[in-house]
């Protein structure tokens, strides 16, 4: 009986969450044509430019970690020259998007959810509705657009910095000349590989933006609810990133053969 | 510059204070076990399902790399298994735990300090470092290596299953421990334990310095998660780099 109750409650929660997400998606899309330009600019500065140092640090760490990782098995198979390809492939396809997504779900997702929850708890969103303004047009849509644009822009910068750090790490840790590194890198990787990484990051960004908005807007209570919303936003974004990563990797790998 | 210094310095100061306070007052064992249960029970599903998906992604990538050069994913299997045990298993599990536990700890502690519950604790002769931080650190150091083990197992099983059913390769070829030696296990354990020590400390630094209202709680939670995730990446890099330089 207790099991049935729990099962039912979980199913109801899942339905409620999906419904809330659907509502947020729908109302955001409807609000897109009349989104507030000034708020968009502010959100772009906050989410994009403000995350730049963190994205660069993540890129540098990801680059060095991938070289250290692929260095192990590249040396084992005696294929040192292929390190440029293996490390570039690793960053573009998997570790660049994944690590950037996880870090940004903490930076953007938690912050967005906390801010929206704060406004919801403080009754400011009700207030906007009260004076006849659509909170989705002036608050939510600009944030979602800004997060998506920021993630796409940050993905390009991140990949470039990560690959630069990879070539330096390969030179210092494994003694591989930079020319050899970029030789196999440019021979064996095409624009499609870059596109794969950018598509992945873009979809992660969309998931982070929509999930954190949903979590933030459904917060009720006081200071406790704000912290809870931020924590929930991070957890849901991370879970979504792993599921989407799997779906996109199998899809793109199958499609590009 | 001061941001960088405080990023590295604040957790060290927090650790020193926690160790001093808990040698003086003793660690509350009941609370530590409760925190361990909290950390493990709340994070285990996230870590295991996340790592299961990650294992599937890993074998998909290995497959598309292998098709280009060696022809068969079974050749790359043992090398990828070593990579999973040594690097990716602990690092990605720790990152997932950092987002779950780091956010939860920072939110709890900042709510307590905004509501002046921390001051109330001090007034009643309690020590926030011994009573609040030490149990969480204890739970992290013990719990994160266990979570990393479970996450690595989940990733291995799902990778083997995907290799077996989707790519038609013998799944057990992937779980071939040919290259795994004691040093790999040591590196994995060091990463997991280092992250387990760092996550609660970073969350506590962000949580305990929160002042103000609900706004401060949101900011502290964000700061705690970001610091915990970035710290896990840094710890992962440091251990990998040390082992690479020592040629172990």
From TrEMBL, chain A:
Stated name of the protein: ABC transporter permease
Pfam families cross-referenced by the UniProt entry: MlaE
Keyword check for Cell membrane: no
Organism: Myxococcus virescens
Coiled coil: none
Sequence intervals crossing the membrane: 44-70, 82-103, 152-174, 194-217, 229-256
Keywords: Membrane, Transmembrane, Transmembrane helix
GO function terms (MF aspect): phospholipid transporter activity
Gene Ontology cellular component annotations, sorted alphabetically: ATP-binding cassette (ABC) transporter complex
TrEMBL record, chain B:
Pfam families registered for this protein in UniProt: MlaE
UniProt keyword Transmembrane helix present: yes
InterPro entries attached to this UniProt entry: Permease_MalE
This protein's UniProt keywords: Membrane, Transmembrane, Transmembrane helix
UniProt GO cellular component terms: ATP-binding cassette (ABC) transporter complex
Protein name (database record): ABC transporter permease
GO molecular function: phospholipid transporter activity
Residue intervals passing through the bilayer: 45-62, 137-162, 183-205, 225-246
């Amino acid at each position: 009986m207790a099991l049935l109750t729990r099962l039912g409650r979980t199913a109801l929660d899942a339905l409620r969450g999906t419904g809330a997400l659907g509502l947020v998606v729908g109302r955001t899309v409807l609000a897109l044509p009349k989104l507030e330009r000034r708020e968009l600019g502010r959100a772009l500065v906050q989410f994009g430019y403000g995350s730049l140092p963190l994205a660069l640090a993540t890129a540098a760490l990801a680059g060095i970690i991938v070289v250290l990782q692929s260095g192990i098995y590249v040396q084992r198979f005696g294929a040192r020259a292929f390190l440029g390809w293996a490390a570039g492939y690793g960053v573009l396809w998997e570790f660049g998007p994944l690590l950037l997504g996880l870090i940004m779900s903490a930076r953007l997702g938690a912050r967005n959810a906390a801010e929206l929850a704060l406004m919801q708890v403080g009754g400011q969103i009700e207030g906007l509705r009260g004076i006849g303004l659509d909170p989705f047009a002036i608050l939510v849509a600009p944030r979602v657009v800004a997060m998506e644009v920021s993630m796409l822009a940050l993905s390009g910068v991140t990949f470039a910095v990560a690959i630069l750090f990879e070539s330096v790490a390969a030179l210092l840790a494994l003694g591989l000349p930079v020319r050899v590194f970029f030789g196999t890198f440019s021979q064996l990787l095409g624009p499609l590989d870059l596109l794969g990484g950018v598509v992945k990051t873009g979809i992660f960004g969309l998931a982070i933006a929509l999930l954190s908005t949903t979590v933030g807007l459904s917060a009720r209570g006081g200071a406790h609810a704000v912290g809870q919303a931020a924590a929930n936003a991070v957890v849901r974004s991370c879970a979504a990133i792993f599921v989407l990563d799997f779906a996109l990797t199998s899809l793109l790998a199958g499609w590009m053969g | 510059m001061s941001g960088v210094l405080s990023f590295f310095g604040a957790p060290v100061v927090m650790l020193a204070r926690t160790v001093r306070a808990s040698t003086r007052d003793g660690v509350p064992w009941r609370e530590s076990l409760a925190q361990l249960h909290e950390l493990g029970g709340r994070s285990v599903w996230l870590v295991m399902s996340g790592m299961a998906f990650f294992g599937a992604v890993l074998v998909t990538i290995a497959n598309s790399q292998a098709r280009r050069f060696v022809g068969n994913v079974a050749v790359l299997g043992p090398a990828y298994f070593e990579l999973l045990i040594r690097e990716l298993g602990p690092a990605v599990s720790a990152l997932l735990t950092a987002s779950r536990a780091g956010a939860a700890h920072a939110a709890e502690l900042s709510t307590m300090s905004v509501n002046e519950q921390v001051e109330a604790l001090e007034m009643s002769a309690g020590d926030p470092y011994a009573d609040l931080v030490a149990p969480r650190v204890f739970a992290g150091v013990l719990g994160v290596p266990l979570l990393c083990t479970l996450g690595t197992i989940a990733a291995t099983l799902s990778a083997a299953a995907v290799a077996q059913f989707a790519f038609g390769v013998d799944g057990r070829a992937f779980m071939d421990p040919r290259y795994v030696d004691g040093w790999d296990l040591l590196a994995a354990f060091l990463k997991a334990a280092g992250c387990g020590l760092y996550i609660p400390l970073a969350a506590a630094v962000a949580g305990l310095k929160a002042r103000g209202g609900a706004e401060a709680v949101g900011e502290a939670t964000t700061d705690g998660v970001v610091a915990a995730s970035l710290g896990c990446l840094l710890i992962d890099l440091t251990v990998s780099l040390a082992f690479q330089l020592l040629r172990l």
